[in-house]
């Protein structure tokens, strides 16, 4: 030990206003360098890869479908939450575990302020890792040609979730400085997320919408971020909720007597109450959420300007001479759509109500009394076939079904739904005569009677009951109609389509 | 006076760890000699403003630590080395000392110089970038001393500072104490009476929560002359004699 080469400047009455932020920044830098969080990141990365990314690649390359699992159902938060809470608890309990409590208490900086620096470093690492992992995932998606716009609001919910878990875990460690604080925080975090998921599976309205793993009414639609922006209302409420939890739990860490002076502890108490109030307000707001066509809307948070549709230049092709246009996000499926529609459009060409063109329309979250909205409808003058492709299982990796959807199944379901809507059956099964004409049209479009019952059972969005087999009076009538020469069938349809669509024809009136 | 303690007691439940201690001391090295369990660590913790007294008055550096503002001012000017020094194994020596410099609110612009100086003073300059987990016990103790002196304290409390130091380092440490005591009050608690003899201008002996001797080391040495008390050195014999007298007096009183 040696004498000082030069006596350091003494710490007399520092200029608080400038020194404090700089000092806090230096403290944060030290904490960032020595945070335990980076050690757990490889494990989280592996979990993220296997739980958040890989399952998502089994869905169609549209952002709403790709991110349904990891963002909508909150698997990114599930992958991060318990581990982040554990490491934060480990860091929060550090001084107590390491026998440094006395030494740290005997320093001038308020204990709470020093703890906040430790927590901030933990949270910065966790949130930065979360954003980096999600960024890489979205980068990979972009490389895979995923279309639409990423759900940035839901990314923000995840970041807020990670922050909340870090704050809650830290508070556990600060209050209970034991080596068991970390496993307890991890288990608590896991339990909270499990309960959140279970509640989320059961409830599509009310307060439970605030839970970060509840995807009901917000994420089951393929066209969010494609035809219209992601509705930010519920994400904002969830961010408020999670931020409230973070603020409240951080405030709790400032309540013990050794945390700081009276004013600081009062500030901590105020912060705790403010956090509880913010979280409570968010829960209340979530309870007022209502389902709109574009997602969950919270009246107090909703900005009507965000409802404006996203402008786009459609991608167009032709099916049997009929123009078919889709959103560019769906362009990869345009050949499959035109190929599927061509025989069906040929079958009805020249008939009253035959579409002059086909155009894609946005999927809707709102279901009517008769069930979900029809995927294919015909209306307007001249008649336009409106395709809500977002409701269908598209060829390739599918949205919510298991395994890949074969092009043949996609073709069949599009022709089935077209024939169904063309006969005027609407959102119900249709009259027996309508069912028979539908079957005959499908037969004309290349789908045998024998294949039709199975098709009805597997097609997405088909409203009618599935017959056991292609027998009975409906199929008998259909066979009679299909057996007619094309010109005779065409002529009969031209004459009777209006009555058929009005539901006035009986099976006996079919030729 | 930098330390003014008047009739201070501290209880932990039914146990009275410190029982009516009064102490006045100014700049210089003050030695605190006591057997295990005598209450010195509790007394030092009170002087370090970690725990408040149960009764009595404490004034440090002319301030009452009961109030948060004065306590914070005291802590800016305080250096403390606990008996059982905890540490963050992943921190380097420099980071550990910097961490405490920042907690002690050393002006941030002066932190790098203060850290370098403190590390040099404990002769750890060559290990500044070594992780604490890689250091020997003696080096860790020196890192602990570095964090205690990084803010150039006016009141330095050292609980068993020489434990784990080799003889050469202990000699150097005593020189450091003498240098620091030119401007500061240094209170050193130790079991090693030779440290007291070599470095302290004043010494107190504690037993059963009370100060049973307060004076110059020479006076302590004199207490042992002709007493027949056990000890390898005159100072040790003085220490043993003081303790024996205090215990017999206590036995008579009870």
Structure description:
The complex is a heterodimer of chains A (511) and B (254). Chain A has 17 helices and nine strands. In chain A, helix 8 (152-175) packs parallel to helix 10, helix 13 packs across helix 15 and helix 14 (432-444) crosses helix 16 (473-483). Chain A is α/β, with parallel strands linked by helices. Chain B has helices spanning 40-47, 68-76, 93-103, 111-121, 137-149, 167-180, 193-199, 217-224, 234-253; strands spanning 3-12, 15-25, 28-33, 55-60, 78-81, 155-159, 185-190, 202-207, 210-215. Chain B has a six-stranded mixed β-sheet with strand order 5-6-7-3-8-9, with helices on both faces. In chain B, strand 8 (202-207) and strand 9 (210-215) form a beta hairpin. At the A-B interface, helix 1 and helix 6 of A face helix 2, helix 3, helix 4, helix 5 and helix 6 of B.
What features would you highlight for this structure?
heterodimer, A: 511 residues, alpha/beta, 5-stranded mixed beta sheet, two-stranded antiparallel ribbon, 17 helices, 9 strands, 54% helix, B: 254 residues, 6-stranded mixed beta sheet, 3-stranded antiparallel beta sheet, 9 helices, 40% helix, 24% strand
């Amino acid at each position: 030990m040696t004498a000082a080469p030069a006596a350091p400047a003494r710490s007399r009455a520092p200029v608080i206003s400038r020194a404090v932020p700089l000092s806090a920044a230096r403290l944060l830098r030290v904490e960032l360098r020595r945070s335990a969080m980076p050690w757990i990141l490889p494990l989280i990365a592996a979990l993220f890869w296997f739980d958040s990314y890989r399952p998502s690649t089994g869905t169609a390359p549209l952002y709403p479908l790709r991110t349904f699992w990891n963002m909508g159902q909150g698997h990114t938060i599930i992958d991060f939450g318990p581990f982040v809470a554990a490491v934060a608890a480990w860091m929060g309990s550090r001084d107590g575990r390491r026998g440094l409590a006395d030494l740290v208490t005997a320093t001038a900086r308020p204990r709470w302020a020093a703890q906040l620096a430790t927590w901030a470093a933990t949270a910065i690492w966790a949130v930065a890792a979360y954003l980096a992992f999600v960024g890489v995932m979205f980068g990979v998606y972009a490389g895979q040609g995923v279309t639409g716009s990423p759900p940035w609001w839901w990314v923000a919910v995840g970041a807020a979730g990670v922050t909340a878990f870090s704050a809650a875990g830290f508070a556990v460690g600060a209050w209970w400085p034991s080596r068991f604080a970390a496993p307890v925080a991890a288990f608590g975090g896991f339990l909270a997320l499990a309960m959140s998921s279970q509640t989320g599976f059961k409830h599509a309205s009310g307060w439970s919408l605030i839970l970060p793993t509840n995807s009901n009414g917000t994420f089951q639609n393929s066209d969010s971020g494609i035809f219209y922006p992601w509705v930010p209302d519920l994400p904002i409420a969830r961010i408020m909720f999670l931020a409230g939890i973070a603020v409240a739990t951080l405030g709790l860490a400032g309540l013990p007597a050794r945390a700081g002076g009276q004013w600081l502890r009062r500030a901590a108490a105020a912060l705790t109450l403010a956090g509880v109030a913010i979280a409570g307000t968010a829960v209340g707001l979530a309870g007022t959420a209502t389902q709109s066509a574009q997602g969950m809307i919270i009246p107090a948070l909703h900005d009507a300007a965000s409802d404006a549709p996203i402008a786009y230049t459609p991608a167009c092709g032709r099916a049997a001479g009929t123009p078919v246009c889709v959103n560019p996000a769906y362009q990869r499926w345009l050949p499959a759509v035109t190929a599927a529609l061509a025989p069906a459009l040929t079958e009805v060409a020249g008939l009253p109500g035959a579409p002059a063109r086909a155009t894609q329309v946005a999927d809707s979250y709102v279901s009517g009394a008769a069930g979900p909205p029809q995927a294919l409808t015909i209306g307007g003058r001249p008649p336009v076939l409106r395709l809500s492709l977002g409701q269908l299982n598209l060829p390739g990796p599918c949205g919510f079904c298991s395994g890949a959807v074969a092009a043949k199944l996609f073709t069949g379901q599009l022709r089935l739904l077209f024939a169904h809507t063309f006969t005027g059956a609407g959102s119900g099964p249709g009259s027996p005569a309508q069912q028979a004409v539908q079957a005959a049209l499908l037969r004309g479009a290349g789908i045998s009677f024998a294949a039709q019952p199975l098709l009805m059972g597997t097609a997405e969005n088909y409203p009618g009951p599935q017959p056991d087999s292609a027998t009975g009076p409906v199929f008998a009538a259909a066979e009679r109609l299909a057996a007619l020469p094309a010109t005779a069938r065409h002529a009969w349809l031209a004459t009777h389509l209006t009555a058929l669509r009005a539901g006035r024809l009986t099976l006996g009136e079919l030729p | 006076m930098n330390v003014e303690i008047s009739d201070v007691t501290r209880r932990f439940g039914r146990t009275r760890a410190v029982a009516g201690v009064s102490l006045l001391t100014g700049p210089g090295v003050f030695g605190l000699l006591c057997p295990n369990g005598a209450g010195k660590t509790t007394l030092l913790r009170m002087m370090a403003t970690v725990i408040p007294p149960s009764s009595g008055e404490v004034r440090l550096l002319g301030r009452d630590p009961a109030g948060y503002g004065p306590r914070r001012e005291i802590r800016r000017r305080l250096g403390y080395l606990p008996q059982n020094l905890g540490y963050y194994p992943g921190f380097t020596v420099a980071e550990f000392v910097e961490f405490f410099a920042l907690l002690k609110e050393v002006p941030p612009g002066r932190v790098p110089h203060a850290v370098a100086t403190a590390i040099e003073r404990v002769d750890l300059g060559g290990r500044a970038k070594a992780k604490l987990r890689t250091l020997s016990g003696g080096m860790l103790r020196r890192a602990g001393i570095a964090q205690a002196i990084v803010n150039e304290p006016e009141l330095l409390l050292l609980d068993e500072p020489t434990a784990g130091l080799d003889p050469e380092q202990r000699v150097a440490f005593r020189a450091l104490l003498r240098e620091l005591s030119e401007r500061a009050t240094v209170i050193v608690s130790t079991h090693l009476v030779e440290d007291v003899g070599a470095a302290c201008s004043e010494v107190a002996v504690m037993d059963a929560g009370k100060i049973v001797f307060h004076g110059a080391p020479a006076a302590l040495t004199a207490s042992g002359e002709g007493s027949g008390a056990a000890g390898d050195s005159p100072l040790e014999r003085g220490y043993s004699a003081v303790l024996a007298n205090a215990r017999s007096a206590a036995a008579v009183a009870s």
